[in-house]
């Protein structure tokens, strides 16, 4: 059957959880119920499917191939992660003791993965949940003048690729050929500056508020807070500022007119996400399907071993910023 799915559990403070029944053939289950699962994601923005018994990367790859419309090849990665299979990646490297604030995956590229599938191959000892935030609610809560400014001006991401934090430019762009990087950047509205030490600095202006193609709602679609310099550990930030100056930070964000974004605004954005976050403790074999255009995700600190892999699918183009607007 491919129709509507029943038995979805809805509880305050938690995402919808669907019991798939006894563990068995996960890919076969998705083959039969994929249409109903996609309908649930359209309705709720994210769904946890429990009972699929996902144990290996091959299991996840099989599910992604049947649920998505084609694997997504990551470009402009923030942090180097391992490609485990076509379209399946390791989780973003991040210290287990440190909170990862909510964000949309790759909101700064012009072709984004519309669907994310997180699979839990091994649940952590404690913590490590993936908070989920419907960012249409964030648009409603943030001050109207801030939303209007970001909607009108967009936001600017500046990156300095080096050895300090995150992916190198070779890892981010998937090539060691500077001419290929220049071509990609020209094609994607990214200004480049090659540095004398062999590093690369880039600057791109992107829309920060989008209209969701299914719901018609405005969504807070950006990484203004996640890639702010204030997202760094304060001691690390001070060290990098001393070493490289404000223009040489690995990443920083600004308003679309180039003005700095004060720390209190970053704190306000993160607090709005926190107030609307829902989460479900991971269990071995869980699948979490997320509408990346509508729902931001993060990660709580954890203890023990945690093995979460992610499949990115359904590449979709988002508008390039109209510099004449």
From TrEMBL:
It comes from the Bacteria. Gene3D superfamilies: Clavaminate synthase-like. Residues 32-312 form the TauD/TfdA-like domain. One of its GO terms (biological process) is antibiotic biosynthetic process. Keywords: Antibiotic biosynthesis, Dioxygenase, Iron, Oxidoreductase. Residues 1-24 are annotated as: Disordered. Its cofactor is Fe(2+). GO terms for molecular function: dioxygenase activity. This is Taurine dioxygenase, alpha-ketoglutarate-dependent.
């Amino acid at each position: 059957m491919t129709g509507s799915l029943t038995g979805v559990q809805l509880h305050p403070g938690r995402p919808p959880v669907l019991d798939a029944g006894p563990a068995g053939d996960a890919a076969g289950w998705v083959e039969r119920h994929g249409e109903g699962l996609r309908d649930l994601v359209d309705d709720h923005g994210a769904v946890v499917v429990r009972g699929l018994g996902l144990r290996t990367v091959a299991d996840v790859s099989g599910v992604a191939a049947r649920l998505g419309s084609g694997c997504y090849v990551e470009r402009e990665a923030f942090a180097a992660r391992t490609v485990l299979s076509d379209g399946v990646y390791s989780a973003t490297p991040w210290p287990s003791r440190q909170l990862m604030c909510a964000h949309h995956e790759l909101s700064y590229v012009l072709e984004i993965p519309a669907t994310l599938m997180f699979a839990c191959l091994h649940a952590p000892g404690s913590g490590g949940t993936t908070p989920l935030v419907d960012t249409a609610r964030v648009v409603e809560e943030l001050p109207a003048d801030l939303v209007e400014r970001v909607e009108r001006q967009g936001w600017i991401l500046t990156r300095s690729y080096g050895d300090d934090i995150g992916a190198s430019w070779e890892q981010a762009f998937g090539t060691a050929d500077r001419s290929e990087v220049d071509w990609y950047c020209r094609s994607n509205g990214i200004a480049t500056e090659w540095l004398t030490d062999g590093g690369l600095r880039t600057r791109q202006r992107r829309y920060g508020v989008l209209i969701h193609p299914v719901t018609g709602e405005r969504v807070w679609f950006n990484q203004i807070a996640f890639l702010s310099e204030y997202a760094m550990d304060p001691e690390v930030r001070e060290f990098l500022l001393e070493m490289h100056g404000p223009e040489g930070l690995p990443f920083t964000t600004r308003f679309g007119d180039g003005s700095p974004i004060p720390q209190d605004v970053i704190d306000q954005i993160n607090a709005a996400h926190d107030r609307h976050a829902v989460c479900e403790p991971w269990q071995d074999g869980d699948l979490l399907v997320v509408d990346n255009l509508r729902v931001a995700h993060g990660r709580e600190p954890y203890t023990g071993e945690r093995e979460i892999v992610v499949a990115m699918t359904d590449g979709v183009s988002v508008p390039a910023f109209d510099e004449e607007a």
